[in-house]
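The methods section describes the discrete structure representation at length, but only in general terms. What matters is that the chain and its backbone geometry are given together, residue for residue. For illustration, here is how one protein appears when written out as sequence plus structure tokens:
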Amino acid sequence: MKRLFAYCLILLCWITPAGAVTMTDLFAALQNHPVTELDTLQTRASELNRQAVYDRFYPSIKGELGYQEFSSPTNWRPVVPTESGRLLANNEPLPFSDSLSRIGATLSMPIFVKELFTLSKQTASLTSSAKARKRLNLLQHQAVLVTADAHLMHMDSLGKSLAARKASLEKTRSDVILQVKSGRIPETEKIRMDEAINQIDLSVNETMQQQISLKKTIESLTSIYLERPIPLQSAGELSEGELFALKPLRETMKAREFGVQAAKDKLYPTIQGSARWYHHYGEGYNTGEDVDGEYGFYGISLQMPLFNKPAYTAIEKAKVELRREKAKFNKTEIELQAKARSLKETLVLLKNSKELAAQGVTHERELLKVAKIAYASQRMSQEEYLRYEEKVLSAEEKFFLAEARWWETFGTLAVLYGNDLQQLVR
């Protein structure tokens, strides 16, 4: 056990100081971590989906190169009777051939497609939702870092308190051993003192295990192994207002509304423009001479759906999705408003708890001084003295825990209102 205690003291007191690493460093590392990059890529994918809708407003141009064999001579362009009569009179080849080669291009473009305008609004809302989700995830990860560091500070401070309590018990134990040897007190008091020190060593080991877990959490978000906790200081006040945590859901709900309209837009008429140009090559069937020429057209068309049963079903499905999204939003809004109210009340109480716990530590330390004197003069039993040692440790732990819980609550509340912890914590 002595080796364990020595090892813990070395870790608590002699490892590399954390001065080289600050919360700013952790926040900066989080910005460049793969977990944040994944959110960035998700947002980029949403932006590209939006661009894909805008791209449908652009004309589509295709080049074409082809060859065809026919079972009978076929014309590659219409020929009016007057032209065919003239060509035959002059013994010129008609634009008919058993085999035709062609090169050309086609163009098509939407002139009016109501669905595209609605889809562009829908994808804009989805993109806004993705950006809000990215920011919310970043803020949540910041809060995890602050919480983990606060509890790491709690464990570190508790470890130091345990070391102080052990040192106090070790000093008292030395006096107990002398009294046992002189026969003034029974040996059972030494055994109880040994067990009290053993429990301290056990608690130190447990705090070390919790520190390992907290360091893992920080390292998984920043790739930084934190040797020692970083002292936290408040650098600003929380900015309250509209719950930012609802923004991704609100934008998604707007997208569902546009989804219903987009489904209805499929029943609207569309206007499409198109154009074609070809240069044909062949052998005139009536003369055997080579024949080639250009042929093309341009125009617009109006397409009106007269009956489209799948569209009616799609409208109903979109309405169901919208109602589901609204219900989800309303449910989450009620929960988050209740959570925010609870966190604000808890934050005030935790601040008071820190002050009361600090007073408790002062009082218990004073009482311990009196208890030490009373026990040394045999005016107090060993059990009573050990209870005073435990009360000091308990009071110190309450203070450290209240401090850690305050930062945890502060970070959670900051996320709900969209506050950047990088601006509020240093």
User: Anything to note?
Assistant: Confidence is low (pLDDT under 50) at residues 1-19. DSSP finds ten helices and four strands in the chain. The first strand starts at residue 60 and ends at 75.
